[in-house]
Specification:
With about 190 residues, the chain is α/β, with parallel strands linked by helices. It has a single domain, classed as 3-Layer(aba) Sandwich (Beta-carbonic Anhydrase, Chain A). It contains 8 helices and 5 strands. A 5-stranded mixed β-sheet has the order 2-1-3-4-5. β4 (about 175-180) and β5 (about 185-190) form a beta hairpin. α4 packs across α6 and α4 (about 100-110) crosses α7. It is globular.
Length: about 190
């Protein structure tokens, strides 16, 4: 990785370099996505540094009681006196063939087969509960239901409500998208 980075840096593509005196970033989009290594947001959207403000975790869960995601969302949309990023769109992006959704489906179907002491089980509790309500093609439908649930949770969060109530701030929208691993295409689920 370090040698590939050195080769990349040697190309001196000016669109990727940032003047060290320029501390501000002004992305219009925040991406809340899964930690899955097959879904690199900058690559699949052909974005440049500074285009996307990112928060990733396993299953792209938005938990308003979890400091990491709340800090990222607050930093992205509020003027907190440090660096007002000021994104206008938050996209919650799920993907096909999601291991967390498969795990949650299995755990909901056969709870006794899961080690409840593991951090993964604790982290995925909201997804496991949601899996218990999904029918049909369980894992595939769970992936989409999870995107919808995370968009809904974001819309009810304090930073988002404050942003929507602030008439001096650019409009903020939240979207639900699905990344298809087999085609490389992002699909707008029209969950906005």
């Amino acid at each position: 990785l370090l040698s590939r980075n050195a080769e990349w840096a040697a190309t001196k593509d000016p669109t990727f370099l940032v003047d060290s005196s320029d501390r501000d970033q002004r992305p219009r989009v925040m991406w809340i996505g899964c930690s899955d290594s097959r879904v690199p947001e900058s690559v699949v959207t052909r974005s440049r540094p500074g285009d996307i403000f990112v928060h990733r975790n396993v299953a792209k869960l938005f938990n308003p009681d979890e400091d990491s995601v709340m800090t990222a969302v607050t930093f992205a949309i509020e003027d907190i006196g440090l660096n007002n990023v000021g994104v206008e769109h938050i996209v919650v992006v799920g993907h096909t063939n999601c291991g967390a959704a498969s795990y949650a489906s299995d755990a909901a179907e056969n709870p006794s087969a899961v080690d409840r002491r593991r951090p993964m089980y604790r982290w995925l509790q909201p997804l496991i509960r949601l899996a218990g309500t999904v029918t049909g093609k369980r894992t595939q439908n769970l992936i989409i239901a999870n995107i919808q649930e995370q968009v809904d949770k974001l819309a009810q969060s304090e930073p988002v409500i404050r942003a929507w109530d602030n008439p001096n701030r650019p409009a903020l929208q939240i979207h639900g998208w699905l990344y298809e691993l087999s085609t490389g295409l992002l699909r707008d689920l029209e969950i906005t």
